[in-house]
């Protein structure tokens, strides 16, 4: 008689070669079946870093490879917890290995709801990748749900509750989602590898050596503090150097304006996209089903953008060409709200030379906290990182580390005003004699990459 599905393991473990973790090890039949489901395979067709690949050309890796990586780190943590910190060994502070399967499924599926160019797409079409992840896990029509449901009744809902952070065991939730979790650890290492940016790396081996469960979640032994510091600094560097890169954001602004223009044109003439962009129609209508969402990926959108280059609307056609051919908007930093009237003046100059400022200018802000600690006055509580002393007592990371204390609660990032490169590049300025004075007036507002008040 065969074992129940939840206990079925592979006769010989399956491995996936991985540039970050060397091997991803799969031992459970349910995990292999989930990897082979159509909803997870779709993630092969969605880039992990979206428009960042226009800046870092190696960053072609997919959300599929990241999902496998998060699963692998979680699997290793489960092994460490069971080997060293099981309930049998350390009592109520320990790890219950019955939580392994729900943890591994949540780790593998945590990003399954991401769409093409996800954050930009979400903003324009008001989708929510986390809500869609939950829908994929809990909707009876998906392969993912059918596989999970074979484990036991209610198992899909258990996995979904890890994603929504309502699962009752904080050890499981924090392994997948906290300020130092399997998700972040994988994407920092993976994104650093594929972008070629060494400063995103940190000592994962050491972190896994010092990680441990306690009743309230996950902590790190005090003698591993420097490895955790290293991780925090890596995260800081990756946000500054990669995730908030001005050129990547310039491409993101083009993409957002391109989709926004399509949505505006659809309101005027719903027949416009019937001939080619049919998989996008439900989103232009803002009435889409889960099945329609799952048909979209980066390739589908890029195909439509190629078709849009031939459209009669000059703005849609031009933005599509700029996106496909990597013509990002240029930008200048600003940090003072009093500069907004000056930005409006500059938008007027952009319009004067023939660009619609709605589609060719933007204010784009990117900010993040490298590390946050619990503040009762804050409306948003993040799970803080706890260090564990030998006697079992806990110390919050920024209380023990001067380095982290210096970064804690400090937002990083900037605000930028984006505009067409033509405004400041004489090599591509058309009719220079006609608009020469306008270009010169515009350029007076920028010095060393930042907005300044021009001296007349």
UniProtKB/TrEMBL annotation:
UniProt name for this protein: HD domain-containing protein
User: Which superkingdom?
Assistant: Bacteria
Which part of the chain is the HD/PDEase domain? 59-197
Q: Which organism is it from?
A: Enterococcus entomosocium
Matches recorded under CDD domains: HDc
Q: Which InterPro entries match?
A: dGTPase-like (IPR050135), HD/PDEase_dom (IPR003607), HD_assoc_2 (IPR045509), HD_domain (IPR006674)
Pfam family of this protein, just one? HD
